[in-house]
Design goal:
single chain; Aminoglycoside 3'-phosphotransferase, Chain: A, domain 2; two-stranded antiparallel ribbon; Kinase-like_dom_sf; AGP_Transferase
């Protein structure tokens, strides 16, 4: 919450969550005194009704779950949010992430991800450039969506899903959101993407849209952006730049390693997924 934009982001995301419940199964925070975010002794809280359900591990996800979530994502993309009057943030194409700064700082502090970051740093700059170029080209076509619709953010009561954790909700290109979410629901615990689950998710989405076409390579390359943003945030936590305690620092360090490996896997699978979408 120390970030200047954090409060407005939470307020906007809860406005979105409160609107989508008319169309898709979702769980917004409770509104008290016309507010979703509550400041008590300078600690900030969101309060939710209890859900008697659970989220799925990646290896528990079935084709039926993928079909259902693909259809729900399509319904989410069709919602008219115009009455919210939320301005779309302008993409800052001038910002260049200085990965060498984080590497040098990590070396000074002898952090365990130094060698991995050092061996990948040129790829990070390349992925960054490709992602920004693709995202800029896709930015003229946007919807409002959850933007983090992973299995961990869906609670299941038997076969009925409830979407939680709307804090990342906002504008996104619909095909980028489709690709990223289909990946979330088709990846296993080792990071490999199951083609059958992926195709089932896409077909679930197709049930609610008239046509589905895009420059899939461009769409997939834009998917680097979220992963790179998460890597930079994790680096800041690991390096105590944006961090409040030891547990968060350790989590940031672990996330740096995991995110770099995830980026490398994603780069390898792009041609394969592009081929799946062109069949």
């Amino acid at each position: 919450m120390i970030r200047p934009e954090a409060m407005q982001n939470y307020m906007n995301s809860e406005k979105i969550a409160n609107m989508v419940i008319k169309h898709v199964p979702a769980q917004p925070a409770k509104r008290i005194n016309n507010s979703s975010v509550h400041n008590i002794d300078n600690q900030f809280y969101l309060i939710f009704d209890w859900i008697d359900g659970r989220s799925l591990d990646h290896n528990e996800v079935t084709n039926e779950h993928c079909d259902q979530m693909g259809t729900i994502l399509a319904e989410l993309h069709k919602i008219d949010f115009s009455q919210l009057d939320m301005a779309m943030p302008q993409m800052d194409v001038s910002k260049e992430t200085d990965w060498a700064f984080y590497l040098n700082k990590g070396k000074n502090e002898s952090l365990e991800w130094n060698e991995l970051l050092d061996s990948t740093i040129q790829q990070l700059y390349e992925w960054n450039a490709r992602a920004k170029r693709s995202s800029q080209l896709l930015s003229s076509d946007t919807v409002i969506s959850h933007r983090d619709l992973e299995p961990k953010n869906v609670m299941w009561q038997q076969n009925s899903p409830i979407i939680i954790d709307w804090e990342s909700a906002g504008y996104i290109n619909p095909m980028r959101d489709l690709m990223e979410t289909a990946m979330y629901w088709s990846v296993d615990n080792t990071g490999n993407v199951d083609k059958d689950r992926f195709s089932t998710f896409i077909n679930g989405y197709r049930k609610r849209v008239s046509s589905l076409s895009a420059d899939w390579r461009m769409v997939l390359e834009s998917g680097f952006l979220g992963k790179l943003d998460w890597l930079e945030y994790s680096l800041k936590r690991s390096l105590w730049i944006e961090c409040t305690d030891q547990d968060e620092q350790r989590m940031g360090t672990a996330q740096v390693i995991g995110t770099i490996e995830d980026l490398k896997r994603y780069d390898r699978i792009i041609p394969e997924v592009e081929n799946w979408m062109s069949i």
